[in-house]
Amino acid sequence: MSSSTSVSVVPQSTSGFSEIFDSLPYYDNDLEQYPHLKQKVEQELAWEAGATPQELHPMVHPPFELFSKNPLLKAELERCEAREPLPPLDTVRYQLPGPINVPASDEDWRKAIDNAHAQLEHQRIRQTNLALLQQYGSNAWRIHNYRLEAAANTAEKALEELRNLTTEVNRDRKNFQTRIGGQLTSLETRWTELISSVLQIEMANVALEADIDRLNKREVELAGL
């Protein structure tokens, strides 16, 4: 791994220890230099894609449950996810069936008459709604479309601003990391040169000590003669 990537552990007061990953993703190229690291990252991503929420990191937000307080919408969402067809329309309520029992009792005829009154009231309300729609529907639809267009324009403008802001942030991050990465490379090169110089000095010292020992031994031999 390059010197620009490091992992530190910072003690927390409530949750024990928390890992902090510090890296320069716009500058580091460890995955290109070390293919086995890229393979490990791909395996980790594949595991996270199929992992259950209990197996993920505690900082990962749990999945959001839609329509938890609306069972009808939740059931409809489950139907759409399962790609099941819509249930057939109930057309019985729009029919005028007579009494089922033969001969019919007064209660059977009363239920049939009540159903007929309900159907008549339903048709009357439909006629009223159609008249209102014919008189005011076009203008109401134009106003609705105008509001939708205004909301869409506002959302598109906010999206464009967010994209520009994201691009600016990424550009600043890339420039900063590239600049810092250059400094890190220079410092790492300087560190390597210093280590190499120290090793060369140590090797020269070892060679010099060997020469000194050889000369001392030669001096002892000459003194004995």
From TrEMBL:
Keywords: Coiled coil, mRNA processing, mRNA splicing, Nucleus, Spliceosome
Origin superkingdom: Eukaryota
Coiled-coil zones: 145-218
A cellular-component GO term for this protein: catalytic step 2 spliceosome
TM annotation in the entry: none
Name of a matching Pfam family: BCAS2
Main location: nucleus
Location in or out of the cell: Nucleus
GO biological process: mRNA processing; RNA splicing
Family assignment from sequence similarity: Belongs to the SPF27 family.
Protein name: Breast carcinoma amplified sequence 2
Organism this protein belongs to: Neolentinus lepideus HHB14362 ss-1
